[in-house]
Amino acid sequence: MTNELNKTEFNKERYEFEKRARTEEMRMQVTTFAVMIFLTFVAFAMVAAGLSKEFIVPAVLLLALIQVILQFYYFMHMKHKGHETAKLFILTGLFFAASFIVMAIYLAWIGDPLK
Q1: Which residues are listed as membrane-spanning (predicted)?
Q2: 76-103 as b/e, with b when 16 or more CB fall inside 10 Å?
Q3: Which residues contact residue 83 at a Cβ distance below 8 angstroms, ignoring those fewer than 6 apart?
Q4: Is 95 found in the same domain as 70?
């Protein structure tokens, strides 16, 4: 009988702990979503305000990068344990994408190096 009471007490404590953890997780997701909507409105406002193109393009790209990081971290649950392989593949893909972009810009800037 005592063992059964301890199990019930343990289950209640575990339930309360998991409930608090899930509530905190949901709160962070809603907050992150609100931040991302705000960043989107900021990007639209900068374009609508007619600011210079030299300022808008890097600023919008920076805001987009922040949103991508937030997407991976919170909505794709990359902060949780067990996602190390997925993180490795994503970082490898980002490395190759950045390398190709830098190479394309370099080749477009200097022209054909074989001439």
Answers
A1: 30-49, 55-76, 88-109
A2: eeeeeeeeeeeeeeeeeeeeeeeeeeee
A3: 77
A4: no
Q: Are 28 and 74 in contact (CB under 8 A)?
A: yes
Residues 22 and 68 in one domain: yes
CB burial class (10 A; 0-12, 13-18, 19+) of residue 32? middle
- Within the chain, how many helices (H) and strands (E) appear? 3, 0
Count structural domains, the chain: 2
Q: Based on the domain organization, do 70 and 94 belong to the same domain?
A: no
Contact between 74 and 30 under an 8 Å Cβ cutoff? The reply is: no
Task: Report pTM.
Answer: 0.63
pLDDT in tens, 13-66: 888 888 888 888 889 889 989 999 999 999 999 999 988 988 999 999 999 989
